[in-house]
Design brief:
two-stranded antiparallel ribbon; alpha+beta; Beta Polymerase, domain 2; 14% strand; ten-stranded mixed sheet
């Protein structure tokens, strides 16, 4: 499929009105003509660039988006946590922090998306692929896409499975002399295993009260192989992304999430082919202007397009936005993505979305035959969405004024047109503010779900291995804080063990002394490379072991430090 976007495409709405949609920013320039010399093209271009630069700086300062430094820090912290948590997971599962949070955004209204899949299963596209893999480590699953729409498939078990695999056994049903895994039954079983969760599309939604957080768990199976139906994507990768990114994506394979096509023959049993990992790698490969354009589109969707709409009427979603910017990047519609043309980049993407809504076709980036508007944007909902978007289009880029945050930065430039452009990160975010966010990110993400001593030892072993790999400064800070947390929890686990019923009447003072020394040593190590609070854990331990002088001494040293 070749996606062509021309600078003056013509559309017909209700067969009567001819709409000439131009991918430029003349509408906005005219709306602020009092600030520009309409007879001077160079001056107009500079004004446009100046406005884009102002919005670029403004988006960097918005916490939900952030600077390149903030973005690197957020991603590195999640990467470390993802590696350590997957290593410790006792139930043969892997996790991937995906969605907006995993990409580096911090939108307040967004929930946290986590994809999980069992590591003892692998999906294959053909039987011949199974013989080249070690099936002793996993149970092979095969696909059957013969009766499924593009982007969807059925999954069936190639070999009998043990009774221990209760979730898959519960979800299986016999069709066409094969044992298929039903996506709807699989979610039902997951809900039985997690009674605090509710069904949310292909996910189970867990709502945490403290802190207030909604976590979507997307249940899936993994394949190490690239889907044959997405082979055309590889052929399209001439300009973007870079070859090493393409190779990395192909090696990573894909996933199958538990949801079927609403208009398919097997809606309750089908699985959707998911490219969440590939999409995350593509977002990571963006430069900061491209990322902020993506963020501005998401911001515009939430604050303007879907503003005051009920959940049922929000037909356009952030995944459509992501797909649009992927297509624009790959088709090389914009030759340079710089702060000076950020608004033009936004306008090109917005215009493409408008074109898709008019045509009723949103081609999936990896499998273009999969029209993602097919089930929810058609008929009356399509007309209503098009009118809403076209109304915004008619206003030109001044439609961004409907977002108070963006309006502030644009008006700031209009009122102070001679402010110098500067993207020095030290001026965009002061060090104390960045340090505060850094430790907030660590605090929110450095949580371990296991409490037993064996898991603590495994975690320390994994951290020790990671310490010898190529690390960024944020990786190191995260590993240091994780180590401090593990040492603290291990020390207090020893304390609880000593005061449990096993040792309450044990007269072996030497053994108690050894455990006490080990605990103190761990807490002192944690205090060396942990936060200030790590020293207070040592004071707390001294207090609980009735060494009040030592506890006060640690507190005094902490004050001085």
């Amino acid at each position: 499929m070749t996606l062509e976007i021309k600078f003056n495409d013509t559309f017909h709405f209700n067969s009567t009105k001819c709409l000439k949609l131009k991918i430029d920013i003349k509408n906005f320039q005219q709306s602020v003509s009092s600030k520009m010399d309409s007879g001077n093209t160079t001056h107009r271009r500079r004004c446009s660039e100046s406005l884009s630069e102002s919005v670029f700086i403004g988006l960097c300062k918005i916490h939900e988006l952030g600077t390149p430094q903030q973005l690197a820090m957020r991603r590195d912290i999640i990467e470390v946590m993802n590696i350590v948590q997957n290593y410790l997971e006792p139930n043969k599962r892997n996790f991937l922090w995906c969605g907006s949070h995993g990409e580096g955004f911090r939108f307040v209204e967004s929930d946290m998306d986590i994809m999980e899949w069992p590591t003892n299963y692998r999906v294959f596209w053909e039987r011949s692929q199974i013989q080249y893999n070690n099936t002793k480590r996993f149970v092979p699953i095969l696909t059957d896409s013969s009766e499924s729409p593009p982007g969807f498939t059925l999954l069936w078990l190639h070999v009998p499975i043990p009774e221990a695999h209760s979730c898959v056994l519960f979800s299986s049903l016999r069709m066409k002399e094969r044992l298929y895994i039903s996506s709807s039954k699989y979610i039902e079983k997951k809900l039985l295993q997690e009674p605090t969760c509710v069904k949310h599309g292909p996910c189970t939604l867990n709502i945490m009260e403290v802190p207030r957080l909604e976590i979507d768990h997307a249940h899936s199976f993994a394949s190490d192989l690239w889907p044959p139906s997405a082979s055309s994507w590889i052929d399209r990768c001439h300009m973007w992304p870079q070859p090493h990114v393409v190779d990395d994506i192909i090696r990573s394979g894909c996933h199958f999430v538990a949801i079927g096509h609403k208009l398919g023959n097997h809606e309750n049993n089908e699985w959707r082919i998911s490219f969440s990992l590939a999409e995350q790698k593509l977002v990571f490969s963006m430069n900061h202007c491209q990322f902020l354009t993506y963020g501005l589109l998401k911001w515009f969707l939430n604050k303007v397009i879907n503003c005051q709409l009920s959940e049922e009427r929000k037909s356009l979603c952030s995944y459509h936005i992501k797909t649009a910017i992927f297509w624009v990047l790959q088709e090389n519609i914009i030759s340079q993505w710089t702060p000076q043309n950020l608004l033009e980049c936004f306008w090109v993407c917005f215009k493409l979305i408008l074109k898709w809504v008019y045509e009723g076709v949103c081609p999936n980036f990896f499998i273009p035959e999969n029209n993602m508007f097919h089930t929810n944007i058609h008929g009356g909902s399509q007309d209503a969405l098009f009118i809403r978007l076209y109304t915004l289009y008619e206003r030109g880029l001044s439609c961004l004024f409907q977002s108070p945050s963006i309006r502030y930065y644009i008006m700031n430039e209009l009122c102070n047109p001679r402010l110098p452009f500067c993207i020095n990160e030290s001026t965009l975010m002061h060090d104390p503010v960045f340090a505060m966010e850094l430790f907030q990110e660590i605090h929110e993400n450095a949580t371990l779900n296991t409490l037993d001593l064996i898991s603590f030892i495994k975690a320390l072993q994994k951290i020790e291995k990671l310490a010898y790999s190529l690390l960024t400064n944020y990786h190191i800070v995260m590993l240091q804080n994780l180590s401090a947390i593990i040492l603290q929890q291990t020390a207090f686990s020893f304390y609880n063990l000593l005061h449990s019923s096993i040792y309450m009447y044990n007269d072996n003072n030497k053994e108690i002394y050894i455990f006490d020394k080990i605990s103190c040593h761990m807490l002192k190590m944690a205090a060396k490379f942990g936060c200030i609070s790590a020293k207070l854990y040592l004071a707390m331990y001294h207090y609980r072991t009735c060494r009040y002088r030592e506890a006060l001494s640690v507190i005094e040293r902490t004050k001085v430090g």
